[in-house]
């Protein structure tokens, strides 16, 4: 049996010898808040054992006002942020993760002339294949059935050790030229 103090479990002998100073309590609270905050952004990613670069990109995407779409190395959608929800037509909470076979076809991609784009022509798919950045402007039919013209720039996520861990696509509605 133990004693719980500030969220930590101590044996009775340990508890009797502990001295809780204000600085100890402050740092305990800060550490717990930081752990909780990272957990909010990356709880799903941590459950799936994603690399730290994926977790940090997801946290960054969640803070940006530009739409962001993140995939793993196999092209499976890991996350898209709230600004992306407006263009894609559904909340991430409602779609969840998607394999490339789904997101690569569900949006009905077309060029400016109305010709269907093959999945292999999409910037994000090219980035996943070649591990290089790409850009393209094209049309999608979002999940509400609305046609949206978007510009997409994709880039690989490569960790410090040179390990390829996924890819990111940022996209927006281009201004009329």
Automatic annotation (TrEMBL):
The keyword rRNA-binding does not apply. InterPro entries: PAS (IPR000014), PAS-like_dom_sf (IPR035965). Residues 58-89 form the PAS domain. The keyword Protein biosynthesis does not apply. Coiled coil: none annotated. Keywords: Membrane, Transmembrane, Transmembrane helix. SUPFAM superfamilies: PYP-like sensor domain (PAS domain) (SSF55785). Pfam families: PAS_8. The chain crosses the membrane at residues 20-42. This is PAS domain-containing protein.
